Amino acid sequence: DIELYLQRCQQLSVTVLTDHQDLRNTELKTIKNSTAPQQYRIRAKLRTYKPQKLHQSVKLYCSKCKSLQEVPNGDDFNFILRGSAFTAPNPELHNTFWYESVMWTTQDRKQREIAIHFVKHDEMLQHPEDTLLMIEGGTLKEIWKLTKRFKCVIPVRSTEDDLELLDLSAPFLLQGNVKYYGCKQCSTPKPMRSLSSIAAEQQPSWEPTEIAQALGIELLQYVFIMKFTLVDETGALNAYIFDY
Fold first, then answer.
1. Are strands 152-158 and 132-136 parallel, antiparallel or unpaired?
2. What pTM did the predictor assign?
3. Annotated domain spans of the chain
C-alpha cells in the first residue's frame, strides 16, 4: 500500500529514495545549484508529500492545452443525467440507417422516458460485447448496468436534427468501469451521426481514441501526480511525479 509506505518513510530518519548504486551520494544543496538535466543518487528524508490521500493524485490531463483538472465524482455525473432527463427523446430520430432504437417508460413515480439506440453494422446488430449504444434519459445506475453487458455506452440527448453529447463535465463515453472525458477548451463536439462512418467500417473496434476523434473530442488522459519534499543536512528539495 503506497500510503502506508509513504507514512513509513516519514518515520525513518534516512531513506534511500533512488537506486543508481554506481553513483556517489550527492547533497541536495549541490543538486539545487546544478543545471538540469543530471542524474544523481541521494540519501534524504521524506519530510512531506502531497496529496495526503492517494486517490487525490489521479487527475485528468489534456495533452493539447496542457491543462489539469480534477476527476468529476459520481454526484456531478448524476446531476447532469437528471438534467438531461427533462428533454424527452425525439421519436423522429429513432431507427435510422445506422442504429436501431428501443423506447420505454419507467414504472416509477416520475415515469421517465428512456431511449436506447443500438448501433448497427451491415444493417445488423452486433454481439453485445462488440456493441456501442447511446442512451437518453437513463440514470447512473441504469447506465452502469448497461456497461456490464455492452462494450461502449454514450449518454446523449435529442435535438431537432440529431442526437448530441451531454455537457463535457460528464463522461462522453463509458467502457467497462472506465469513464472517458473530453477537454472543454479543446473539443468541438460533433453530432452523433459522425459515428456512422465507424459503424460502416469492415470491423468496427469502437476504441475510445477513434470515437473521440470522430466526435471532435480532445480526449483527456488519466495521470498520476505527487509532490515530495526531501531534506538532508544541506537543504530541502521538491520532487514531482507525473505519469500516465
1. parallel
2. 0.82
3. 19-63+223-243, 72-217
